[in-house]
Write a structure and sequence with these properties.
Structural class: alpha/beta
InterPro entries: ATP-cone_dom (IPR005144), Form_AcTrfase_GR_CS (IPR019777), Gly_radical (IPR001150), NrdD (IPR012833)
Keywords: ATP-binding, Nucleotide-binding, Organic radical, Oxidoreductase
Mean pLDDT: 92
Strand content: 5-15%
Strand order of the largest sheet: 5-8-9-10-11-16-15
Number of strands: 23
Protein name: Anaerobic ribonucleoside-triphosphate reductase
EC number: 1.17.4.2
Distance between the termini: 77 Å
Pfam families: ATP-cone, NRDD
Low-confidence stretches: 1-14
Helix content: 40-55%
Length: 725
């Protein structure tokens, strides 16, 4: 045995290191020497002492090509003791013991349920769409809490522990892997409404009017939302519903012919009645969606995509959607949170004043200034980035262009199988300015993320069509499988996507280049290279497994808080990184700064090309009600530069004093700046929580997201005033 205590300077550094490290669950990784250094750095052991500890450990492992986690831990403790660092050895033993105790706690349903019963904010406010005060949500939270503990034990242990540490985030753990559910989808409404479907004991035939069609859509949405855990979207709803509105028109033509002889008057009567039918049907759909509760204890995350239809009926559907949203919900005219509206802008359709649907684009601009929605899709850019045009699944998840065995492009009826997000700021904090080390750590985290995503795919393959008939047997997923069919028919060959998410490029850039790096080309190129590397990994995994792995700019509604809290515990309050109390979403510009909309979007525009599985850009504006042309100018400028753009503008209302504008953030939430009102019964406070809107007074959000929203600065341009109310 080497006498490391008496002759520290004579230690021979062993260059030979094991090739592989075997984790506790048997998974093999490359042996990473940097991990020993990181642990020793955390123990405040550096310089020659650190070299001696590492040499001692490697001496004990010499000649072994593969070493287990226990072998390394034993060598670590023994070496520390031999060097006379008994206190450090004991601290390491205690750390490992605490790590195991934490694992036992997180996988113990009783412990987790106790936290829920104690109303732990990280549990009850994790999803701003869930009202934790009501019984059905409480039941879902209880089931989800148990599901998380069981799910952690089901997945590979190294993945579960990486999730608990905060190296990665295994999304929707309350539902999956305990249940083999899928994430979000583009429901194939055209197939279902044309051929009929079955819900429960009811055989539903194809509708004969637009009113019945939208009623059936609401039923489909409720059932789909209860059979998956992510958002559900209706793509090109104006075109899907037009044939059913045409049935109304023909019915009214026939009715009017009994009483009117003039052909022009007959048509005018039928058109007028049909327009009324369309408006009523779309209004009913809006109210239905906002009053639905899925089995998950929440309003279904629903997105309606529209804007490309040019027939008079398709135009009328588009106008009705926007007019109804502008009008608001109920007697107080509150802003509807759902469905999310996504309006498509396309050259030759509605972009320019000479286009046939330009008037509808103007209506969309008005709607966005008053209700924030619609967000806008730029047709040509979406096609360029994702390979074909389609609306997002949920708030931002995009399918990639895909053709079936007959060469037909297919979008509706496809889905996403789940998301795993990697904590990029943590990698940067570990690297501490060393780019070579950053890429070493990045490489290992990619291996963990890959294991997690592959497990997500394998788990959904355990589903049977009988588990979710609305999805697999009755058309929501496009094809209709038999009860004993193989669900993989709908997933393989790139038909479904599975997503590698990321968060915190701003914080990574800050770690290496300081907080004001946005105009530093080297910093921009470095952060862009990270997204390119994520993209390269996904391409390789897609080829290896025959499923489409895509890069996803994670919304991070609660993850912005979770990752930052965990990293604060580990690294302390690091200026402009963890001290903000939140991490910046994906590739977004630092929300605390004041670039113009054009500067912000120019900075962000390069990233989505490599993150085509999910992305969105936002701009923060002052009150735009009196200046809609300013918003239209941004939309027009952005058309050939970015694919997907959201509008954030103050639309809060106080029904006590009449204030309209932006509520003031406080420690307890948001309040009217005029009278201090914060009662959700007498005010309407609407904020962009992530991809969707939320009402933080009705349904509070996690602390980090609240701080992030409060930190958002306006992206001003000529003609805008920050204090405009």
């Amino acid at each position: 045995m080497l006498d490391l205590k008496t002759d520290k300077n004579s230690i021979k550094v062993i260059k030979e290191v094991p090739s592989y490290f075997i984790k506790r669950d048997g998974v093999k990784f490359s042996f990473a020497l940097y991990k020993l250094k990181l642990v020793l750095n955390a123990m405040d052991l550096s310089g020659k002492i650190q070299e001696n500890v590492i040499s001692g450990i490697l001496n004990k492992l010499v000649g072994k090509d593969e070493v287990s986690a226990q072998e390394v831990a034993t060598a670590f403790v023994d070496t520390l003791k031999e060097l006379g660092l008994d206190d450090k050895a004991q601290a390491y033993i205690e750390y490992r013991k605490q790590d195991e105790e934490k694992w036992e706690e997180q996988t113990n349903p009783t412990e987790r349920l106790a936290r829920l019963q104690g109303k732990d904010p990280s549990l009850v406010h994790e999803n701003a769409n869930k009202d934790s005060k009501v019984f059905n949500t409480q039941r879902d939270l209880t089931a989800g809490t148990v599901g998380k503990t069981l799910g952690l034990k089901m997945m590979p242990e190294h993945v579960a522990k990486a999730h608990l540490r905060g190296d990665i985030h295994y999304h929707d753990l309350d539902y999956t892997p305990w249940s083999p559910m899928t994430n979000c989808c583009l429901i194939d409404f055209k197939e279902m409404l044309t051929h009929g479907f079955k819900i429960g004991n009811a055989e539903v035939e194809s509708p004969h009017s637009i009113q019945t069609a939208t009623a059936q859509m609401a039923q489909i949405i409720a059932n789909v939302a209860s059979s998956q855990y992510g958002g559900c979207s209706a793509d090109r709803i104006d075109e899907v519903l037009a044939p059913f509105a045409m049935k109304n028109y023909h019915k009214h033509l026939k009715e009017s012919e009994e009483f009117i002889t003039d052909e022009d008057k007959i048509k005018a009567f039928a058109v007028k009645r049909t327009k009324k039918d369309i408006y009523d049907a779309m209004q009913a759909l809006e109210y239905e969606i906002n009053t639905l509760f899925s089995s998950q204890g929440q309003t279904p995350f629903t997105t309606l995509g529209f804007g490309l239809g040019t027939s008079w009926i398709e135009r009328e559907i588009q106008k009705s959607i926007l007019k109804i949203r502008i009008a608001g919900l109920g007697k107080e005219k509150r802003t509807a949170i759902f469905p999310k509206l996504v309006f498509t802008i396309k050259k030759g359709v509605n972009l320019k004043p000479e286009d046939p649907n330009y008037d509808i684009k103007e209506l969309a601009v008005e709607c966005a200034t008053k209700r924030m929605y619609p967000d806008v899709l730029m047709y040509d850019k979406i096609k360029e980035i994702t390979g074909s045009f389609k609306a997002p699944m949920g708030c931002r998840s995009f399918l990639q262009g895909w053709k079936d065995e007959n060469g037909q492009e297919v979008n509706s009826g496809r889905m996403n199988l789940g998301v795993v997000t990697v904590n990029l700021p943590r990698i940067a904090l570990k690297a501490n300015g060393d780019k070579d080390l950053f890429w070493q750590i990045f490489d290992e985290e990619m291996q963990v993320a890959k294991s997690a995503l592959v497990f997500k795919v394998k788990r959904v393959l355990d589903a049977s069509p009988e588990n979710a008939p609305i999805l697999y047997q009755f058309g929501a997923f496009g094809k209709r499988l038999k009860p004993d069919g193989n669900v993989d028919e709908l997933f393989k060959n790139g038909r479904a996507t599975v997503s590698l998410g990321y968060i915190g490029l701003y914080e990574v850039g800050t770690s290496f280049y300081g907080p004001d790096w946005e105009n530093n080309q080297e910093a921009h190129d470095f952060t862009l290279q990270i997204v390119k590397e994520l993209n390269l990994r996904c391409k390789a995994w897609s080829k290896e497994y025959n499923y489409h792995f895509s890069v996803y700019s994670t919304p991070s509604e609660s993850l912005t808080d979770r990752f930052c809290k965990l990293d604060t515990e580990r690294f302390g309050k690091v200026k402009d990184i963890t001290d903000k109390e939140y991490y910046t979403n994906s590739f977004h510009y630092d929300v605390r700064k004041h670039p113009s909309p054009f500067e912000k979007l120019t900075f962000e525009m390069d990233y989505p090309k490599y993150a085509s599985g999910g992305f969105i850009h936002y701009c923060e504006y002052p009150n735009l009600r009196q200046n809609p042309k300013a918003l239209e100018a941004v939309w027009d400028w952005a058309y050939d530069k970015i694919g997907y753009l959201g509008t954030n503008t103050p639309i809060d209302k106080c029904y006590k004093c009449g204030f309209q504008g932006e509520f003031k953030p406080t420690a307890r939430g948001f309040e009217c700046p005029k009278c201090g009102n914060h009662d959700p019964k007498t005010c309407d406070c609407v904020k962009r929580t992530c991809g969707y809107l939320g009402n933080p007074l009705q349904r509070p959000m996690v602390h980090g997201r609240h701080v992030e929203i409060a930190s958002r600065a306006k992206n001003l341009m000529n003609g805008m005033a920050e204090d405009e109310q």
